[in-house]
Amino acid sequence: MHFKTIDAYHAAQAPEDRAICDALRIAIDRALPDAEAKIWHAHPVWFLNDNPITGYSKLKSCIRLLFWSGQSFAAPGLHPEGSFKAAEARYHSAAEIDPVALDLWLAEARVVQYDYKNIIRNKGRLDRLD
Predict the structure, then answer these.
(1) Beta carbons of 32 and 106 less than 8 angstroms apart
(2) Is the pLDDT of residue 5 over 90?
């Protein structure tokens, strides 16, 4: 299903998943007020300087919160995802969201970034941004 807005994405979720999405969106918007939020590859994603930072998506049994550079975060609790630097947390209910951990990850997301924006131009090489 293709959504044009984050609101439409949230509205299409089951009530418990919507509660997770709403809680994540509030925390992300608060921590990254200068980020551009949009639907990207059918899911809500936040960008800084056109570089994807964080987002979430509905999986079969949960909502997955993804940080594109999360494998390099010092704060614990995220699990590696994929073959680049991404890491994730998965939630089955809004009560599982640890607001302290989430705030730490979001703070790191601002300063620990890899250049996903130019990964194709760099022929798959992922450089850390200053």
Answers:
(1) yes
(2) yes
